[in-house]
Amino acid sequence: MKIAIVGCGNMGMAFAKSFLQYDLVKKDDLLLIEKSTDRSEALKNEKAGVVVDTIGPHVGQTDLVILSVKPQDFNSVYEALRDVVQPNQIILSIMAGIPIAQIQEKLAHPLVVRAMPNTPAMLGMGITGFTAAKEVDLASLRRVENLINATGRSIFLEDEAMLDAVTALSGSGPAYFYYVVKAMIEAGKQMGFDDAVSALLVKQTMLGAYHLINTADKSLDELIKAVASKGGTTEAALRTFEAGALSDTLVAGIKAAQVRATELSKG
Ligand SMILES: NC(=O)C1=CN([C@@H]2O[C@H](COP(=O)(O)OP(=O)(O)OC[C@H]3O[C@@H](n4cnc5c(N)ncnc54)[C@H](O)[C@@H]3O)[C@@H](O)[C@H]2O)C=CC1
Ligand SMILES: O=C(O)[C@@H]1CCC=N1
């Protein structure tokens, strides 16, 4: 299989490296299109694939083109891509917000799959929601799914509208997790630990607690209850969170991300 990746930043290269790791593509068959000179020099040094700075006829010789520029940069790539795209090529967009219909229209090309991964894809531990234009046949969709699964797990969604919710929940989700971890480490520092000790206490807590979610056979409420003794310390913390409407604020923030995903489709 030959693959072109347009925009080789964090996510484009997370995909590229996962494909290479599982031998799903050879380096010579991996075309990396990257506009930034610094970035493309780094990619050349890494010998991650064939690095070029613009979209040209060579892109039309691949089986799959991954669009991994920022949504705002789609306007700077679609004309060049429309000129070279071939009828049998599949376009896989991971750009937040931009609907399949808009990509089809701008590229004058029906075969579009839209996916929303997240940064743990860099470790092969991502989760990607994806959907496809009705024109994409099942065999092609399976091939794309196999590629996505090199970056972690995936879930096919019939309803494209839900991809903006995936973006808000799991696409942006790692940042929410880091935000909470960072606040906990800050609390540790304010109570007298140095950075390293506070980070160790918090990170190991998050790791262990995550595994209990999957193994303890308890609901999240039961897991909370198992930590929060009546009249104890955890209750004092949870009362403060409730007083500050922390849970509601998190829900509101995630919904704001969903709204922003929808706005991104409007450019
Ligand atoms: N970062 C994240 O957590 C996630 C990002 N996404 C989506 O993935 C896409 C890429 O995001 P990141 O990798 O974080 O951004 P990034 O900024 O790391 O990478 C984008 C790359 O595209 C390059 N680029 C811009 N215009 C170009 C052009 N005309 N031709 C060739 N290259 C060009 C930039 O130089 C940059 O290296 C975005 O559309 C974003 O919505 C999706 C899921 C998660
Ligand atoms: O923040 C963003 O717009 C992108 C999409 C999901 C994660 N990062």
Automatic annotation (TrEMBL):
One of its GO terms (biological process) is L-proline biosynthetic process. Its EC number is 1.5.1.2. GO terms for cellular component: cytoplasm. It catalyses: L-proline + NAD(+) = (S)-1-pyrroline-5-carboxylate + NADH + 2 H(+); L-proline + NADP(+) = (S)-1-pyrroline-5-carboxylate + NADPH + 2 H(+). Its main location: cytoplasm. It is found in: Cytoplasm. The keyword Transport does not apply. Pathway: Amino-acid biosynthesis; L-proline biosynthesis; L-proline from L-glutamate 5-semialdehyde: step 1/1. Residues 2-97 form the Pyrroline-5-carboxylate reductase catalytic N-terminal domain. InterPro entries: 6-PGluconate_DH-like_C_sf, NAD(P)-bd_dom_sf, P5C_Rdtase_cat_N, P5CR-like_CS, P5CR_dimer, Pyrroline-COOH_reductase. Belongs to the pyrroline-5-carboxylate reductase family. NCBIfam families: proC. Catalyzes the reduction of 1-pyrroline-5-carboxylate (PCA) to L-proline. This is Pyrroline-5-carboxylate reductase. It comes from Spirosoma aureum. The gene is proC.
